Amino acid sequence: MGLVSVVRFAFCQDSYSFTDASVDDWMSILKLSTQYEIDHVRGLAMARLHGSQIDPLRKILIWREYNLDPSLLIPSYVSLCQRSEPLTFDIAAAISSENFVRLAAAREVYRQRMGCEHSINRTTAEQAAIAEEVVRQLFAKPGPRPAKRKKMGGVSTMNKA
């Protein structure tokens, strides 16, 4: 798909003509709509890619490259949290060091919860729900820090931490 397709998509209301577009097609649409700042097309491309079956690591890389809504990556992190293979240097290199540490912590907490409750047979859906809960907790954006009181020369002042 090229620029002509993106322009056609941007100015035509018939988005159904793109229902059979592949992941690579949507990647092209995302790239061009980002380059030419066509936000509504970019948003649709993001939504279609989010709903597509894409390797979790590839999806994380796409989201980072195009600065897309990180909250939509929860299923990808859940998938990486649940996988039995160990984390790799490729994963560490692909995601930020902060997210790599969060992912490693999520895997540890998930495995502890699953191990401690091994006497209970859990369905795949229940296991996924536990993994999602853990990932959401560890990947939640920290809120604003509360102001701290600081004494200066006997006078109490408010400082943001």
* Spatial separation of the terminal alpha carbons: 49 Å
Strand tally, please? 2
Q: Let me know the largest β-sheet.
A: 2 strands, antiparallel
Q: Over the alpha carbons, how many angstroms does the gyration radius reach?
A: 21 Å
**Poorly predicted regions:** none
Structural class: mainly alpha
Number of helices: 8
* Assembly of the depicted chains: single chain
What is the ordering of alpha helices and beta strands?
Answer: HHHHHHHHEE
Major sheet: arrangement of strands: 1-2
Write down the overall geometry: elongated
The fraction of residues assigned to DSSP E strands is 5-15%
In which range does the helix fraction lie? 55-70%
Structure description:
The chain contains eight helices and two strands; from the N terminus they run ααααααααββ. With 161 residues, it is mostly helical. Helix 2 runs antiparallel to helix 3 and helix 7 (97-116) crosses helix 8 (124-139). It is elongated, with a radius of gyration of 21 Å.
Offer a concise description of the structure.
By secondary structure, the chain is mainly alpha-helical. The chain is 59% helix and 7% strand.
Record the SSE blueprint:
Layout: H1 3-11, H2 23-35, H3 39-50, H4 56-65, H5 74-82, H6 89-94, H7 97-116, H8 124-139, E1 147-152, E2 155-160
Antiparallel strand pairs: 1-2
What would the keywords be for this entry?
161 residues, mainly alpha, two-stranded antiparallel ribbon
